[in-house]
């Protein structure tokens, strides 16, 4: 029974795609402009990936700095300032992602 299901699902999908493509190519209507949809997806991916990557990077940087301070409390002054600089640079990359998302969203209309 499972073998039939494994074979039937791809064949049914292929048949539906094959039969529906003839109706699409037969229409005389102009093709819809889908570039706005792609721009929206690009804007969402730009800010989403930038936020996820920035959050992971900041979390790892802060955890490593706090681990170093916990192991050697006398080095907290030498670790704290580079950590703040690193966090600021990571956040600037997230802001670049936000600017890219705003530019793509402005092109949508």
Kindly describe this structure.
- The structure is a single chain.
- The chain has 109 residues and is mostly helical.
- It has one domain (2-108): F1F0 ATP synthase subunit C (F1FO ATP Synthase, Up-down Bundle), CATH 1.20.20.10.
- The protein has helices at 2-26, 35-71, 76-108.
- α2 (35-71) runs antiparallel to α3 (76-108).
Second CATH tier, the architecture: Up-down Bundle
Instruction: Return the string of H and E elements.
Output: HHH
- Secondary structure class reads mainly alpha
State Rg: 25 Å
Content of β-strand? under 5%
Total count of helical runs of at least 4 residues = 3
Averaged pLDDT: 84
Number of strands: 0
Layout of secondary structure:
Elements: H1 2-26, H2 35-71, H3 76-108
Keywords summarizing the entry:
109 residues, mainly alpha
Short description:
By secondary structure, the chain is an all-alpha fold. Helix content is 87%, strand content 0%.
